[in-house]
Design brief:
Oligomer: single chain
Number of strands: 10
Radius of gyration: 19 Å
Helix content: 25-40%
Length: 280
C-alpha cells in the first residue's frame, strides 16, 4: 500500500510540474484530506459563512513566510501545510469557490487558485502575481470574485505611492532577475494612477456592524511605499464583535484573534485602518 502511495505521489508531482504547478507529495495528500473534510461541511446559503467554516479547518496550521518563493521560475505553488496571511485567504477562497461549484477536484482547485492569485487570472511569470493587495482586491473585483466594500462602510480615499518592492529589491529573491524587476517597476508605475479607500482605525468601531463574517480584511499601513501589511477573514464571534481569522505572525499559526478587530489593530503601530473585500 505504501509503495502504491509513493508511486501515486511521484506521478502526481511529475504531472503537476509539467503544468507549471509546484506541489509536494505531502501537499497532494493534504489536498485530498482537505477536500474530503470540506465536502462533509454543512452547506450554508451565505457564502461568507461557508468561507468561515472552510477557514476553521485550517486552524493551527503553521504560519510560514514566503511560501510562494520556490525555485527559479514562477509556478503555481500549492502549499497547505504552511501558510502566510495571503495564501491562507487565497486557499480558503479557492476551496470556497470549488465547493460551491461542487467540484472539489485538484484541477478545479488549481484553476481557482490561479484565477485568484494572478493578474487577470493568468500565470505569466513573477510579475503577473498580484503582489500588492490593493491590486489583488481591484483585479479580483474585475473578475467578479469579490466586491470592494470599503467606501460603502465609511472608508475614505487615500493617495499613496506604492513602490516598496521596487525600492527594496534585495528583499525579494526573484527580483535579482532584471526582467522580473522591470515588470514590477511597470506595475508600480501603473499603481500610481490608482486611488484606494481605507476605513480609518478610529472609524472602524462605528462601522463594525457593516462588516460581515467571511469578508476579507486587509490591514492598511503607514509604512512608506507599502499598501497592506496583513490580511485575514472577518468573523463575528460569540461576543457579537468582529474578530479576524488569520495566519498569525504572533502565534505562528492560523487562529482567531482573541481581541476584537478594533482592539487588535490598536496594538499595531503602523496600522492606519482596513480595507474590506466581500467574496461574491
Amino acid at each position: 500500500m505504501k509503495q502504491l502511495f509513493l508511486l501515486f505521489s511521484l506521478l502526481f508531482v511529475t504531472i503537476t510540474f509539467a503544468q507549471n504547478i509546484t506541489c509536494s507529495p505531502e501537499d497532494a495528500t493534504a489536498f485530498h484530506k482537505k477536500s474530503k473534510e470540506i465536502s462533509l461541511l454543512p452547506q450554508s446559503v451565505n457564502f461568507g459563512d461557508s468561507l468561515i467554516s472552510i477557514g476553521k479547518t485550517f486552524l493551527k496550521i503553521p504560519y510560514v513566510a514566503k511560501t510562494l518563493e520556490v525555485g527559479e521560475k514562477e509556478s503555481l505553488v500549492v502549499n497547505l501545510h504552511g501558510l502566510d496571511c495571503t495564501t491562507f485567504v487565497e486557499n480558503v477562497l479557492a476551496f470556497g469557490l470549488i465547493s460551491r461549484a461542487d467540484s472539489l477536484d485538484f484541477t478545479s482547485f488549481t484553476n481557482a487558485l490561479e484565477e485568484i492569485r494572478y493578474r487577470d487570472g493568468q500565470l505569466n511569470g513573477y510579475g503577473s502575481r498580484l503582489h500588492y493587495f490593493t491590486e489583488w482586491i481591484s483585479n479580483n473585483q474585475a473578475k467578479g470574485l469579490v466586491k470592494n466594500m470599503t467606501s460603502e462602510i465609511g472608508g475614505k480615499i487615500v493617495k499613496k505611492e506604492i513602490n516598496f518592492m521596487g525600492t527594496h529589491r534585495d528583499l525579494y529573491p526573484f527580483l535579482k532577475d532584471d526582467a522580473n524587476y522591470n515588470t514590477i517597476l511597470k506595475t508600480e508605475t501603473a499603481l500610481k494612477e490608482n486611488e484606494f479607500c481605507v476605513l480609518s482605525q478610529e472609524d472602524i468601531a462605528a462601522n463594525e456592524h457593516l462588516i460581515q463574517s467571511g469578508d476579507i480584511i486587509a490591514l492598511a499601513t503607514s509604512i512608506k511605499g507599502l499598501d497592506v501589511t496583513h490580511t485575514g477573514i472577518a468573523i463575528r464571534a460569540k461576543d457579537g464583535r468582529i474578530h479576524m481569522l488569520h495566519a498569525s505572525t504572533g502565534s505562528m499559526q492560523v487562529e482567531v484573534t482573541k481581541l476584537p478587530l478594533v482592539d487588535y489593530l490598536k496594538k499595531i503601530k503602523s496600522n492606519i485602518g482596513i480595507m474590506v473585500a466581500r467574496p461574491l
